Amino acid sequence: MISNAIKQKAQQIKLVIFDVDGVLTDGGLYYGAEGEAFKRFNVKDGVGLKLLQQTGFSVAIISAKDSAPLKKRIKDLQIVHAVLGCKDKLEAATGLAEKLGITMDEVAFCGDDMVDLKVMAKAGLSIAPKDAYHMVADVADWTTESLGGQGVAREVADVLIAVNGSLKEAYIATMLPEFESSNYLDSIKE
Question: Do the annotations mark residue 26 as ligand-binding?
Answer without folding.
Answer: no
